[in-house]
Amino acid sequence: MSRTLYDLIGLAAGVAFILALKGLSHPKTARRGNLIGAFGATLATLVVFFYTNPGSSLPLNNIGWILGAMLIGLAVGVPAARKVEMTQMPQLVALFNGVGGGAAALVAIVEYLHLGNDATTAEVIFTVFTVIVGCVSFSGSVITFMKLQELMTTRPVIFPAGRFIIAATLASVIGVGGWVVAALGTTPLLILAGLSLLFGVLFVLPVGGADVPIVISLLNAFTGLTVAASGYVLDSVLLIIAGTLVGASGTILTRLMAEAMGRSLFGTLFGAFTAKPQDASGAAEERPVRSGSPDDVAILLNYARRVVIVPGFGLAVAQAQHTVRELADLMISKGIDVAYGIHPVAGRMPGHMNVLLAEANVPYDQLEEMDEINPTFSQTDVAIVIGANDVVNPAAENTPGCPIYGMPILKVSNAANVIFLKRSMRPGFAGIENELLYDPKTMLLFGDAKASLTKVVSALKAL
Amino acid sequence: MEPIAVISIFVLAVFVGFEVVSKVSSTLHTPLMSGANAIHGVILVGAIIVADHSSTNLELGLAVAAIILATINMVGGFVVTDRMLEMFKGNKK
């Protein structure tokens, strides 16, 4: 295959990626967009097997190794993607992003070993960039994965003099990077990789649980840029286009997410470095709360005219999406006006709750976004908060200095009655006490969300 | 490749990347992130190229690891994005 044809097919794949991102921006075209992207990636991969590099011949050298490695990748990736629970989606995206960053770093290292002293200065600079950012993306993603999977604490991890350790690590990463460019050599490059991995860990540790999705998105953009840099070293137009697209769109997406959460990007990434460790316990544990029975809840609902359901991650963990839809249908049949109030970051990731409710076939027109639903709470008789906490916590509005201060919230406190379905008094993902739980108009129904909802449904049917 | 060609491609791709996602609703943030994630799995192409010209066992070993990781990223990414979007589609009516 001629170089021109090879590059043209690469360009076609690049266009497919643009169409994919464009399609993914609208609900109607999203699925088709993703399939176009998959087609482009398949095309790009196939064509490599038919292009002869200068000084090489077909079939590719080491073709057995190449195909074997691809089969292993398929055998790991496809079942993981098929079987993952929708609740665990953010972890999986983080992990897939991390392995992509790792792959880019490895490709850069191999190419560096291969070129040896023949590498131009520009190539070495791009290699150093790819190794640093790819390694940061890899180890950072692993830490976000562990936080989301709750293999480690979801609170910001802040250690004494953390800021200085992070700054010193970053300085040595840059220093060693300069050393590689100036002196060349395998050992400095491997030291660079090790330091970059360490920096990735230190960079993500102080980020609080609620901000983790923003970090995943940012690391996603980083990985895109490493792919673009690899494209320069490997002389591939396609990698430059694809990597830059992901880098740019990922940056915008990160900003959009940060806005939806009412966070400044800078504050998310660097806020924790300056924050004092949170006082985890608080003095509130002993205060009385009003707890009710499923019958109390059913009676309250039966006489309501408008009910707003606010679903949170706890709903999905309890697999109660179908039961909540049953409750909603029952209320609608009784002539009650029902809507779902969806916070942009309900769940563990922006848009996550929409995915989870879509899985339970909740009709689209009942889902209302935060800006639509907030003005209606004052005409709402009952707001049912199921397994959500941080997204309705008034502390975000009235407690400067708390980790979620400034995040827009669903103003359920404006409703006449608030019902919380909770497993326990444990605070939410961000680890902050919620004053609303102690409000006199709040009623708490303790227990597993699915079991509680089932009891409420049968109590409501009996009325 | 000419540096000026590389810079041109880079700058234009940055603008295209900004433009295509600038008005996406928060409903689609998760699938969009996942889809963009799958796209950078195309580093698989780079991994195959370096595996082809690996001349030592070390190079080949690292290249094989890169192919495995990149394949997981690319294939897993597209499959999981499709699974999410499939559910959205069932809801449109």
Which key phrases capture this entry?
A: 463 residues; Rossmann fold; 2 domains; six-stranded parallel sheet; 17 helices; B: 93 residues; mainly alpha; 77% helix; translocase (chain B); cell membrane (chain B); NADP (chain B)
Describe the structure.
- The complex is a heterodimer of chains A (463) and B (93).
- With 463 residues, chain A is α/β, with parallel strands linked by helices.
- Chain A has helices at residues 3-24, 30-48, 63-83, 89-115, 121-148, 162-183, 186-204, 212-233, 237-260, 265-274, 294-302, 313-317, 321-333, 352-359, 370-373, 395-398, 449-462; strands at 306-311, 337-342, 367-369, 382-386, 417-422, 442-446.
- Chain A folds into two domains: 3-274, no CATH class; 290-462, TPP-binding domain (Rossmann fold).
- Chain A contains 17 helices and six strands.
- Chain A has a six-stranded parallel sheet.
- The radius of gyration of chain A is 26 Å and the shape is elongated.
- The termini of chain A are far apart.
- In chain A, 52% of the residues are buried.
- Chain B is an all-alpha fold and 93 residues long.
- Chain B has a domain at 25-89.
- Chain B has helices spanning 3-20, 29-39, 43-52, 57-89.
- The longest helix of chain B has 33 residues, at 57-89.
- The mean pLDDT of chain B is 86.
- The interface between A and B is large, with 111 and 82 residues.
What spatial form of chain B do the alpha-carbon principal axes imply? flat
Return the structural class of chain A.
alpha/beta
Largest sheet, strands/sense/barrel of chain A? 6 strands, parallel
- C-alpha end-to-end distance of chain B: 50 Å
Spatial ordering of strands, largest sheet of chain A: 3-2-1-4-5-6
| Rg over alpha carbons of chain B | 18 Å
Q: Return residue spans of chain A where pLDDT drops below 50 for at least 5 consecutive residues.
A: 272-284
Residue fraction in strands of chain A: 5-15%
Mean pLDDT of chain A: 84
Instruction: Estimate percent helicity of chain A.
Output: 55-70%
Major sheet size, sense and barrel closure of chain B: none
Q: Please give the alpha-carbon distance between the first and last residues of chain A.
A: 75 Å
Percent range for helical residues of chain B?
over 70%
Relative strand content of chain B = under 5%
How many strands of chain B?
Answer: 0
Taken in chain order, the helices and strands of chain A follow as HHHHHHHHHHHEHHEHEHEHEEH
* Number of helical elements of chain B: 4
**How many structural domains in the coordinates of chain A?**
2
| Order of secondary-structure elements of chain B | HHHH
Overall 3D geometry of chain A?
A: elongated
Keywords (chain B): Cell inner membrane, Cell membrane, Membrane, NAD, NADP, Translocase, Transmembrane, Transmembrane helix
EC number (chain B): 7.1.1.1
Protein name (chain B): proton-translocating NAD(P)(+) transhydrogenase
Organism (chain B): freshwater metagenome
